Amino acid sequence: MKDQTPGAIAAEAAARRSYGKLVAFLAARNRDVASAEDALAEAFAAALEQWPRSGPPANPEAWLLTVARRKQIDSSRRNKTVASAWPHLQLLAGEGAEASDMPIPDQRLALMFVCAHPAIDPAVRTPLMLQTVLGFEAAAIAPAFLVSPATMSQRLVRAKAKIKQAGIAFRVPDREELPERLEAVLEAIYACFADGWADAVGSEAGRRGHATEAIWLGELITELLPEEAEAKGLLALMLYADSRKAARRDDAGRYVALPEQDVKRWDRALIARAEALLREASGMQGTGRFQLLAAIQSAHAMRGLTGRTDWDAIVQIYDGLYALTGSPVVAINRAVAAAGARGPRAGLAALEAVAVDSAIAQYQPYWAAKARLLADDGQIIEADEAYGLAIGLEADPAVRAYLIERRRALRQ
Amino acid sequence: MQYMLLIYGNEAGMLSAPKDMVEQMMAAYGAYTEAMKKAKVYIGGERLKPTSTASSVRAPGGKTKVLDGPFAETKEQLGGYYIIDVPGLDEALKWAAKCPGAQHGTIEVRSIWQM
């Protein structure tokens, strides 16, 4: 920012804090997210122009809302056709309904449920949340999802058109639908955090997501739905993983796997926060996947206090998780935990059982886990071969370097 | 908002189904239609004759071409439709899930342009 006048600073702060709230409120009445974003962008531009001169208004959010509403009505007047007359009337009907110093109703929860609606393509749900709730541009979102900015922008435009034209309502689902619909929202937030649960051998690979933003969304959903145990479970899970951020790289910037991490580099405050959330969740109705995943992280975090990892406890939680999901990825992680508890042979036997699923042959964590267990068991040639496959399937350069190093160590 | 529920199903299976199953299905559709009318969401709906009765027409440059058969050969065929008026997609999806055809086939839900 060139000119950090009080007005400019106020505009920026309001932008960060209020973006999702204002988009949600503006879009809720006519289900038109794109026009809400356009109107808000114009309001922010007006703020950046006027506030530095005249000083920030007493209630920046209300000011932005009023200007954005006016822009929304102007633009709806401009493209007035028979087809758009109805939403136009709806906007006019809402005009002046709220006094400017009334608090703006928080429709962000409804907006999150719209973004993760079953009628929206699962692949676009997370980007849609990042854009509409947090105000990210398509170009900033695209790299994490391995697509070009143009493709991402097109997907977002299409999703917003669907919300409007198919008539997806801005509302929080009722009790009976809530668990299933909430799962989709939490899933989308988790996808924002990491591009998959890939923690075999504690490799924690593939953290290409927007971790900070995902935690922000997790905080928001626990704040808006304080009675939902799984929402707390998800936030705890993300905080546990985040607490190990500093330990995940050594001083030379090399990747460090979970079992080798220096526990002194773990963030105690984040772990304590995660523990508290998980405790709160366990006292509520509805155990689920995210609480179990967080419980596994909690067991790992115990090493920071006791100096050892309770692998038997971890195997037990994985058993529960596998019973719930039947996921082969969970089975791989369970096999690694079994090796921790009862030695590499036990782990390898458990891995054999997973390998019947043919898709697993192209899954990096399977090969990384297998290579490590084979090496621990002294089967050097087989381990070398498995490392080769794991390296070939890994996209993260730091993890790849780690695996190459492990493979080289085999020959010494 | 108005929505069209397009009912797709295995036509051959339906045509060769035993008589009592067909009767059951018809009764289920009757009850479903009645429920829509009671809820005041029903605008219209019809059952279509089989795709063997279909003709497809194109008129490129004003020259009419008629082809025997449906527009597309698909695994499941369009067998009927409903038009309903509900507040939004969620309600439309709920009605679609209750359609007897959803048990064996697919209900496509499309919103209708309001002119």
Provide structural commentary:
The complex is a heterodimer of chains A (412) and B (115). By secondary structure, chain A is mainly α. Chain A has a domain at 6-98. Chain A contains 20 helices and no strands. In chain A, helix 3 packs antiparallel against helix 4 (85-94) and helix 16 (328-342) runs antiparallel to helix 17 (344-354). Chain A is elongated, with a radius of gyration of 24 Å. Chain A starts with 5 loop residues before the first helix and ends with a helix. Chain B is of the alpha+beta class and 115 residues long. Chain B has one domain: Dimeric alpha+beta barrel (Alpha-Beta Plaits, 2-Layer Sandwich), CATH 3.30.70.1060. Chain B has three helices and six strands. Chain B has helices at 11-15, 19-38, 89-98, and strands at 2-9, 42-47, 55-58, 65-68, 77-85, 106-111. In chain B, a hairpin with a 6-residue loop joins strand 3 and strand 4. The longest helix of chain B has 20 residues, at 19-38. Chain B is flat, with a radius of gyration of 16 Å. Chain A binds chain B through residues 31, 82-83, 86, 117-119, 165-169, 171, 173, and chain B through 1, 3, 87-90, 92-93, 109, 111, 113-115.
